[in-house]
Amino acid sequence: MKLDQLTLKQYGKLSTADVQSLVIDDKWGGRTLAGVRAELDGLTQKLVKRLNVLGERYEKTVGDIDVEVEALSAKVASHLAAMGVTK
Prior knowledge:
The chain is mostly helical. Helices cover 86% and strands 0% of the residues.
């Protein structure tokens, strides 16, 4: 009871800036900042992972694929010709 009275008496001496500092900076500020940082880190990791997947998926250009298709088509045509198949 005495502690409650002393606490209430002390609260009365606090300015608005003191209360804001205690509540925002000391109580909620650290937790909120840590939560935001954790969320941001998680989103950044997801974004990097997705960008890596897209980078691997679209690594070859259409020109590269065309060259590869032409080379493979020529190879298939030569194998078919060796087997006696003609167009």
